[in-house]
Amino acid sequence: MDNGIKWRAMPADFPRWDRVYAFFRRWRDHGLVREFHDRLRGQVRQTLGKDAEPSAGVIDSQSVKADAVVGADSRGFDGGKQINGRKRHVVVDTLGLLLAVTVTAADTGDRTAAQVLLAQVAGTHHRLNLVWADGGYTGSLVEHCLAALAVVLSIVKRSDDMRGFVVLPKRWIVERFFAHLMRSRRLVRDFERRTTSAEAMIYWSMVPLMTRRLARPHSRRA
User: I need a surface site. Which of 8, 76, 132, 158 has the fewest CB within 10 A?
Assistant: First the structure.
């Protein structure tokens, strides 16, 4: 939204694109996008019979190509995925709902970003005590999470007899989340000059998903 491109697909009953962006910028800078998102998530969890605050989650990252407007100061090259752009580091709950996201250059290591992201999540969600992760998060991060955050970082590894593409236990939850992001045209690649705008767009993308989940029980009761 902050790449200077005027939205041609704006609904006819909306104000001018620059006024819409002004509201987005205000909500982004004052944390209102995330607050709105987090309130919806709590409602969805309670509607599905869960506590509003999660006790377990899954962490992972996704590298995406960056548009030309993304500056060199916030983009990099992910050698493993062969992607020049940015990386989205996320923690989701066991329902696949977003708990936190941070966007970095694509060459930022998963463990480096995870140390900051998990501290943020543990500080916000005090019931969280277990997070599943893949083999990319092994090493000293496991001990750090237990000692500093009182969070068990459980590494889900492939067994030696697995062949080809296999979705590991608990890993499908975050893979489904990334698949949802790819259904949003704005998130197929990173178009935002600021990483804060990129993070806000990810929070916004979850709003339609959660409102649909909230509507389902009401329609069945009706």
Answer: 8
**Three-state helix/strand/coil letters over 52-107:** CCCCEEEEEEEEEEECCCCCHHHCEEECCCCEEEEEEEEEEECCCCEEEEEEEECC
Kindly report the pTM of this predicted structure.
Answer: 0.88
- Residue whose C-alpha is closest to residue 206's, from 35, 26, 1, 37: 37
Distance of CA 181 to the CA centre of its chain: 9
**Residue 132: its H or E element:** strand 130-133
- pLDDT tens digits, 112-136: 999 999 999 999 999 999 999 999 9
DSSP string, 147-162: III--EEEE----TT-
